[in-house]
């Protein structure tokens, strides 16, 4: 049988109408109903009908993506008994991974993402840019040198692939460093349509407040190892998961290292991205083109993927 990993997308994967295709299914209704009750009464309506400007707000974006991902997961679970060897999620998506691994309940997932989105939306404004065509180490070198010289806020937010990295910090620092990165050989540096400097020191107050908030919740040991963002290490211990989640908001997302850990060290040969968009499978395809990739997006894809996973299970 294939060695399967489930992965969950983060902020930026949203689109108006996501999840509406399967929203009348009982398992999906339970998920959306829980998020409507605990996050915002109109969350599913914004998710299905927009407007897009509202869905782009962090307050709605994060819980809407997570609710859609968890609804899709539950529908997939109804149709296949295939268990992943590892799970992971990109930033926000880590909450989907924790739920899939049994570390947090549906209600806890909704409450945590509500508070996370509130704190991140209220954080000091900043900027982020995607750096293409330059390896992460080279980007890190330029960023570190600029930060030390000018004593400003700039950081590597996301290590997405071996030639795609995201920088984050004060608008002025991001603008200046973007020019330096082009001089260093980056093919393109593209500003991202966000208002905050996610995964940078500008998120320190939000991270500290969120760590305090986490202390009110009970975590369980994960039944499936979760490859966590802050260090790309498979983790099952409840206390360790909770501690890492508290650091995640202002720490780099080590997704390149996560993919390498999954494929290179654990032999994952099948990756199922559960939730809106195809961002994560696109990253896997760039770095590991031989890995079998699936996207759980709607009812048709759930049926198709479940059938293929079940066929794999039957062939053992």
Give a written overview of the molecule.
The protein is an alpha/beta fold and 316 residues long. It folds into two domains: 4-122 and 202-314, Malonyl-Coenzyme A Acyl Carrier Protein, domain 2 (3-Layer(aba) Sandwich), CATH 3.40.366; 127-196, 2-Layer Sandwich (Alpha-Beta Plaits), CATH 3.30.70.250. It contains 13 helices and eleven strands. It has helices at 26-38, 43-49, 52-55, 58-79, 93-100, 106-122, 136-150, 171-183, 204-214, 238-248, 255-265, 279-287, 299-314; strands spanning 4-8, 86-89, 127-132, 154-161, 164-169, 188-191, 226-227, 234-235, 253-254, 270-274, 292-296. The strands form three sheets. It has a five-stranded mixed sheet. The chain has a four-stranded parallel sheet with strand order 2-1-10-11, sandwiched between helices. A hairpin with a 6-residue loop joins β7 (226-227) and β8 (234-235). α1 packs antiparallel against α4, α1 crosses α6 (106-122) and α4 packs antiparallel against α6 (106-122).
Topology pattern, helix = H, strand = E: EHHHHEHHEHEEHEHEEHEHEHEH
Provide the number of structural domains: 2
Major beta sheet summary? 5 strands, mixed
Strand fraction equals 15-25%
Overall average residue pLDDT: 96
In the CATH hierarchy, what is the superfamily of the largest domain? Malonyl-Coenzyme A Acyl Carrier Protein, domain 2
The helix count comes to: 13
Percentage of residues assigned to helices: 40-55%
N- and C-termini, Cα separation? 6 Å
At CATH level 2, the architecture of the largest domain is 3-Layer(aba) Sandwich
Radius of gyration, Cα only, in angstroms?
A: 19 Å
Poorly predicted runs of 5 or more residues: none
Derived structural class? alpha/beta
CATH domain fold name of the largest domain? Malonyl-Coenzyme A Acyl Carrier Protein, domain 2
